[in-house]
Amino acid sequence: MLAIGLMSGTSLDGVDACLVDIKNGKFKLLDFITYPYEASLKERIMRNLSNETAKLAEVSSLNFELAYEFVKAIDVLLKKSNRKYKDISFVASHGQTIWHDPDGVKCENAVPNTLQIGSASVINQLTGIKVVSNFRCKDIAASGQGAPLVPFSEYYLYRSKNKNLVFQNIGGISNLTYIKKNAKMDDVFSFDNGVGNIMIDYFTNKYFNMPFDKDGAIASSGKVIDEVLDYLKKDEYIYLPYPKSTGREKYSKEFMEDMASKLNFEKYDKKDIITTITEFTAFSIGYSYLNFLKDIDLAIISGGGSHNKYLMKRIGEIAKVKVISGDEYGINSDAKEALAFTVLGYMTLKKKPSNIKSATGAKEDVILGDITI
Amino acid sequence: MLAIGLMSGTSLDGVDACLVDIKNGKFKLLDFITYPYEASLKERIMRNLSNETAKLAEVSSLNFELAYEFVKAIDVLLKKSNRKYKDISFVASHGQTIWHDPDGVKCENAVPNTLQIGSASVINQLTGIKVVSNFRCKDIAASGQGAPLVPFSEYYLYRSKNKNLVFQNIGGISNLTYIKKNAKMDDVFSFDNGVGNIMIDYFTNKYFNMPFDKDGAIASSGKVIDEVLDYLKKDEYIYLPYPKSTGREKYSKEFMEDMASKLNFEKYDKKDIITTITEFTAFSIGYSYLNFLKDIDLAIISGGGSHNKYLMKRIGEIAKVKVISGDEYGINSDAKEALAFTVLGYMTLKKKPSNIKSATGAKEDVILGDITI
Fold this sequence. Notes:
By secondary structure, chain A is of the alpha/beta class. Chain A has helices spanning about 40-45, 55-80, 120-125, 135-140, 150-160, 200-210, 215-220, 225-230, 255-260, 270-290, 310-320, 335-350, 355-360; strands spanning about 1-10, 15-25, 25-35, 90-100, 115, 130-135, 165-170, 175-180, 190-195, 300, 325, 370.
């Protein structure tokens, strides 16, 4: 059985589309593309993510427009892999989140809610393929946060009978999923460690005019500044017991510039600053392992951080665990989310639940999504 | 098999809920309620129907809030009819339309779109009942107007082997569905005749301080003013060939007051004005029958207009057809739309199309809606 997974993420760069072969419940990634959004579309989506600038007429139109983009992504993917609509058993489409208020606090009288757009009806009508969509609502209805939903796919695809695994994602923020050996669904848990690449990238850009510290080359050439590291370690979030989640906004430009000014970053070697911030990032992640996870046989790192060899090395040294990249473990970082929703769509069509309660906080196991036939 | 249909209409008074018994594809209405919205909720929905005042945070929250109201309606309906969630095979939920732009003209770059809210995930999660929802999108994706969808249910429930039937609805606007004897789905068509009760109600309210002309009592006691009738008959819409549709906004307060002033309504007996406007309304409808429909054995009138006996009589006389009310034909006017969506939901679960192409303008027969299990 062939299936397609579609994910349009917060970066708004485009829609990720993966082609997957499913045999006896085993998933094999066959192909992957990112179909980019034109700048004008990206801009229109962007302004409809904000309560101040969103317009009902545009939101409703974008619900359909994005679906046409998703179909174009499917077309490119199928052409690349020499397949046709009729070869595909189902499409699992996450859609584009334009609003997420799982605590129901973002307007007066709100109840917990979330909104993904990209009409499944359009995808289904244009391709004739069955579509599973709208994955987050049911978890919210079951008192969950509607996120994260990826941990189920990690559990489903990668759990091990004899290894305790940490799936560590290092994006702007870092988050992990812990899957002990022989885990059941309810054993799995997931939380945000804290900072990810966001500070490293910010200061690398500021001092070296590069978008990120490639391979951790800068960090590996400097030394830690104790005063700065001690300051950073005052981040209380690190020490909070899970369940917990944080966001990019915690490590804002204001926060970083305030620190740079307070600690007079100007007086330091700029390489040392990158080394120190990388050290702090490794510490945040390593602390989680040492204090919140019982046994770890392997930490598998995905996301941008998995390309920072120095960061990976320091995490391993701090937490005294074996660390490898997702790529080494056979996980395609780019396709990870699109693949995850393919797994969730498959479960829905099998009438099986796929929310991890300990990850989302939901009170019940629920079958996620709507089916469009 | 028992099923529930839910419809939240443009009046925003509340949600209509019907309980239906389905046996061998035959539908029997068992019970019906309208669960009213509180004034504050109605007000919040109202301001989120307008592109100027809608707020993304509220739209997303209302998507969930309305679903909780729908569940309350289900609870009341089931309590009244002494049934439980587990007795119900499916819920068909139209939801609340908050935006409808089937031509994609209401904002820059728009594509055809429509938006119904009232999360199926919430209904499903709280009741455990399978839900079919989101009926209009697929028809829009198939280049239709996403409306009207009720004609299919008229065809399915009421078509006759030996009678040519007109299903005439007289609300603010009047619209008909024509189903010739032994019709196939593609034979059915539907269009707006033109004005419905909107003018009768307006002037009855203005001159007699009553919301409508009960039983047509006022109209039946006056006489037609030729000058006014001739003026009204200049309404070009009446003579346009179908497919065609119109809206309440055509017969606006401004239009009516402009006419009253131009023709100096003050100089006439007010009863005669009501008689004349009723005559024009009957003419608009009768003209459709005489000029656009081939053979009619019976016209079955639903909606508020079906209570206006004088209007009914005049339609019959003008068009020379037998006219009866929906109630006499066994159609519960109040439950009609909720029942219609129950029929559509049933078809979806049977994997059968249920859009009438000649009514919506769609290019293909499509299976409507999403299924939440």
